Amino acid sequence: MESFNWKETAEVEWDSRADFWHERSRNMWETGSRKTILPFIQRHVKKGSNILDVGCGDGYGSYLLNKAGYGVTGVDLSVEMITHAKRTAIQHEIVFQKADVNDLPFPTNSFDALMAINVLEWTENPFHALKEMIRVTKEGGYLCVGILGPTAGPRVNSFPRLYGENAICNTMMPWELKKLAMQENLQHIEDIGVYKKEVKPTEVEHMPLDLKQALSFMWVYLFKKAGTT
Length: 229
Prior knowledge:
Blueprint lengths: L5 H25 L6 H6 L7 E5 L5 H8 L3 E6 L2 H11 L4 E5 L12 E7 L8 H11 E12 L25 H10 L2 E9 L6 H4 L4 H6 L3 E8 L4
Parallel strand pairs: 1-2, 1-4, 2-3, 4-5
Antiparallel strand pairs: 5-7, 6-7
Helix pairs in contact: 1-4
C-alpha cells in the first residue's frame, strides 16, 4: 500500500487552488464570510501589536490587518499562495514566508497575537497544530481561530475518510475546538458565528449555542494565552 504524505499532498492541493482562491479572497474579507473577523480582532488586540497570520493564503487578510495598524507576518504551506501574497506585500510592511503550521519557524513567545482562519480543520493533527500555534504566541497574547461550521461546503473534502481513504480535510466541530483549547489552558474570551445568507440573524439570536453552531458556516473564537503569575 502506498504511503500517504499529508504535507506533500496538502501542498500540491493548495498550490492548485491558489489562483482560484486569489480571485475570491478580497470579496470574502470585505463583504463575505470573513468581513466580521477584522472588527472582531480589533475589539481585543491593541493597534501596533505583532500578529502572525497562519494559513494566510494570498495575503489579503494580512493586508487588512496591516492597514488597520498591526505588524503582520504571514505564513502558508503553499508556495503559490505565498507568491500571490508577496505581490500584496510590495507596498506594505508585511513579511510572508512558506511554512507549515505544524512546525512554525519562530521562537516560543514570538507574537502578540495570532490569526488562523480555516486552518486547523485542514491539518493532519489539529491538536498538535494548535499546540504549535500556542507556543509561538506570547503569554497574555490572543489567538483568533476560525473553523468551518457544519453547513460549509468545503467539508465535502473530508468525505473520503468514510471509506478509510486519506483526506487532507480533518472534520472538526466548533465545540471540539473549544474543548481542545480549554485542555491547553487557553482562556475563552469571545466567539462569533458566521451564517449563510439564507439564515437571518433574528432566526438564531435566541437559539441555544449548540443549535447556533449547528447552523453555522464558520465559527470564530478568540482565546487568550495565560500569562505567568
